[in-house]
Inverse folding.
């Protein structure tokens, strides 16, 4: 009876001591500016370019956050491009002007992704752009992404997205 009690006591003691010996990782915080985006997406770029079987919990969270943020950006761009093109087609068939786009973000509308573009490609564009523009590190993360993608994926002059409709009450 003494041996099982000793083993149980040892096991319980190890459980109490082990967490105190493990170094605490920094807490996950959503990045708010270019510096945070560079940190998180820099980790993601490293993981994409040199995959490792071992990744710390914080690095995995940064990787996942960056991937999710870029996926949302990718979907927003493709949604608005599709929406404007659909409205253009409908308007042309009806012989009417294109209706005003009230929620479209003109910065996203000036980004024309290629059909081959994938989410990791966006990360590969954004990280070097931020590194090349250190003066903008305190700008919002959205600003960083829009500027990087506008420079990498500009729309041709004939794209309906550039000629996006203006509200009827807009001044020329």
């Amino acid at each position: 009876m003494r041996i099982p009690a000793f083993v149980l006591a040892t096991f319980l003691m190890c459980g109490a001591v082990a967490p105190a010996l493990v170094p605490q990782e920094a807490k996950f915080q959503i990045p708010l500016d270019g510096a945070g985006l560079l940190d998180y997406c820099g980790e993601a770029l490293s993981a994409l370019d040199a995959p490792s079987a071992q990744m710390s919990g914080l690095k995995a969270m940064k990787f996942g956050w960056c991937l999710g943020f870029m996926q949302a950006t990718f979907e927003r761009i493709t949604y608005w491009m599709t929406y404007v093109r659909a409205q253009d087609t409908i308007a042309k068939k009806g012989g009417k002007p294109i209706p005003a786009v009230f929620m479209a973000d003109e910065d996203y509308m000036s980004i024309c992704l290629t059909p081959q573009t994938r989410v990791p490609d966006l990360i590969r564009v954004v990280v070097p752009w931020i590194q090349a523009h250190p003066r903008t590190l305190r700008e919002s993360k959205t600003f960083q992404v829009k500027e990087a993608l506008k420079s990498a994926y500009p729309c041709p002059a004939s794209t309906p997205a550039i000629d996006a409709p203006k509200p009827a009450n807009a001044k020329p």
Remarks:
- The chain is about 60% helix and 0% strand.
- Residues 24-152 form one domain.
- Confidence is low (pLDDT under 50) at residues 5-12, 16-22, 160-172.
